[in-house]
Design goal:
heterodimer, A: 5-stranded mixed sheet, B: alpha/beta, 5-stranded parallel sheet, two-stranded antiparallel sheet, 10 helices, 7 strands, about 45% helix, transmembrane helix (chain A), Signal transduction histidine kinase (chain A)
């Protein structure tokens, strides 16, 4: 749009220069010098303003130079050049002004584009007192020029708004596509996990049907409990809750509690948001430990903003660590200790980009 | 201690009073001298003079820390037991003047140990209270040593000092020392409103606190 304004300003000046039958407007040397200085200063100002260098100071300088020039020219104006001076002020100076304030607030731009020519018109008429036809021609010239300039500014605003709308729509489209892709990935993952659960239960039922395993076998009972615990956890993952980790830990403990195991869950601190894969690594370890628990388990969650330690202290033995299906991730470390019929598992999560907390305990 | 520990139980549920009384009187060192649901009646009767007041934090449906402060201000050793175990609440309970806090689900073992320890002006930290202490983010929290902090953390996680000792590769006695030292630092930090002279004297006797630490140059 700036280029369009420049072209329009140049066209105006060329047309003005080629109008050979018009009287020479600025005959006094002081006026000519002032015009040259103004043109030079304003040109530099426009270039520097467009390059965002010293914007404020340069614009003030340009406006001051223009004001001085207008005052000088007006003071030395010949009697027959009132129209030319009016057109010069609204045309050459006006278009440069448009360039300078093109992107300012619309009410300011409108005020400058209408206010300055109005002031010039009033000054010329009052000081020179030209004939009525000249006043009318001067008014119509100013009106047409200012009208075109205001139209240019409005077109510029419309184009900018259209570009912004387009960019916003594109951004919204990208966001929607990203969310759609994420939802598809989550759904694919869940379908895969449901398929795994389906295969697990199918194998169990087939083994029961063929008589390959016995329900009275403790190992078989653990296998069933583990499968049920994983299913409950998978269902819990899709629930909308404030703290998914605690919700999934409770779901993981459900199967053990149904077996008669007393499970304590004690939480200290506010649990931060943890990615699903990391939560799965934590709850899988807890689940496997709970399956091996005989009668009592104490689950403690110590949470900080960038680190969470989940501890499962339980009576029992022979934690089948090889049954942990979700391996620890980079964010999660697992430590298991067995001692005199007790299991002590610690799952420690640290935020991906955060530093380890002072609460971190040695494993 | 030759004479039995005189304990008053303040709770608004008769079944809880009977259960707790049964737990405490099962230990020959303890004698329950008063049961009731009103703190004012206890403080008004000068003849009772309990060594320890076991106080339920929630009476008649109202969670009231003022009762703790009221008893502590009269010089009573208060052990609070409650089903509410939020760590912020536990810390506020200690700040109000309670000597120790025991969660109701922690059972007889911890309750009896807490009563006996408090009667002897000794610190006792149950696992739930340990969790509250290590979660304390207050600006005026005492500076615990690394070993004290780890001992509190592992005690909170396992509720087994033997397991903590194995994990820390120290003796159970040392673990107990770390935990008591941590509790003592909280006392010294001024979290209790009651007179600390007896507790500090015991702490010095037990080498939990060095005399020079009382001059305010604790690291």
């Amino acid at each position: 749009m700036t280029a369009v304004v420049v072209v329009m300003a140049a066209a105006w000046n060329v047309w003005h220069a080629l109008a050979a039958d018009k009287p020479a407007p600025f005959v006094h040397p002081a006026a000519m010098v002032s015009i040259v200085l103004t043109a030079l200063t304003v040109s530099i100002a426009v270039l520097m303003a467009r390059l965002q260098v010293g914007t404020y100071a340069i614009r003030v300088l340009a406006l001051c130079a223009t004001g001085i020039s207008i005052a000088t020219v007006t003071a030395y104006i010949p009697d027959n050049a009132v129209e030319e001076i009016g057109c010069w002020m609204s045309g050459t100076v006006g278009w440069i002004g448009v360039l300078l304030i093109l992107h300012w607030q619309l009410n300011i731009v409108g005020g400058v584009l209408i206010g300055l020519p109005s002031l010039s018109f009033a000054t010329l008429v009052l000081m020179q007192q030209p004939a009525h036809p000249v006043v009318l021609r001067l008014f119509s010239g100013l009106f047409i020029t200012v009208g075109v300039q205001i139209c240019a500014v409005l077109v510029d605003r419309v184009i900018i708004q259209a570009v912004r709308t387009t960019v916003s729509a594109t951004h919204s489209g990208v966001m929607i596509a990203a969310k759609d892709n994420a939802a598809r990935a989550v759904q694919t993952g869940r379908l895969r996990r449901f398929a795994e659960m389906d295969r697990e239960f199918t194998r169990l039922l087939a083994d029961f049907a063929h008589g390959g395993i016995e329900p009275s076998d403790p190992a078989v009972r653990r296998r069933c409990e583990l499968a049920v615990g994983r299913m409950r956890r998978l269902l819990a993952e899709s629930d909308t809750v404030e703290t998914p980790l605690l919700h999934e830990l409770r779901a993981s403990a459900d199967a053990a509690e149904r077996r008669g195991v007393v499970v304590e869950l004690i939480v200290v601190g506010d649990v931060p948001q943890i990615a699903t894969t990391a939560r799965r690594a934590i709850t899988e370890a807890a689940l496997v430990t709970l399956v091996a628990t005989q009668s009592h388990a104490r689950i403690t969650v110590l949470a900080e903003s960038d680190a969470v330690t989940v501890s499962v202290f339980a009576d029992g033995g022979g934690t089948p660590l090889e049954q942990i299906r979700e391996p620890p991730t980079e964010e999660v470390s697992i430590d298991v200790q067995e001692e005199e019929g007790r299991l002590w598992l610690e799952a420690h999560w640290t935020a991906p980009s955060g530093s380890r907390s002072s609460m971190t305990i040695p494993s | 201690m030759d004479s039995p520990i005189r304990v008053a139980i303040i709770d608004d549920h008769p079944v809880v009073i009977e259960g707790v009384e049964s737990w405490l009187t099962g230990d020959s060192r303890i004698q329950v001298v008063h049961t009731g649901d009103d703190v004012d009646k206890l403080t008004a009767d000068d003849r009772l003079q309990p060594d320890v007041v076991l106080l339920d934090l929630s009476l008649h449906g109202r969670l009231d820390l003022d009762n703790v402060a009221k008893l502590a201000d009269t010089g009573q050793r208060v052990v609070v037991y409650s089903q509410f175990t939020g760590h912020g609440l536990i810390l506020r309970t200690l700040e109000s003047g309670a000597r120790e806090f025991v969660a109701k689900h922690e059972g007889r073992e911890h309750l009896v140990k807490a009563v006996v320890a408090v009667a002897a002006d000794q610190p006792y930290v149950g696992p739930v209270m340990a969790g509250a202490l290590i979660s304390d983010g207050g600006a005026d929290r005492p500076k615990l040593s690394e070993q004290e902090r780890i001992a509190l953390l592992l005690w909170f996680q396992s509720s087994s000092k033997a397991s903590v000792a194995r994990k820390m590769q120290v003796s159970p006695h040392t673990v107990d020392m770390y935990i008591r030292r941590a509790r003592q630092k909280y006392e010294k930090a001024g979290r209790s409103a009651y007179s600390k002279s007896e507790l500090l004297a015991r702490a010095i006797e037990d080498n939990l606190v060095a005399p020079e630490e009382l001059n305010g140059d604790t690291p």
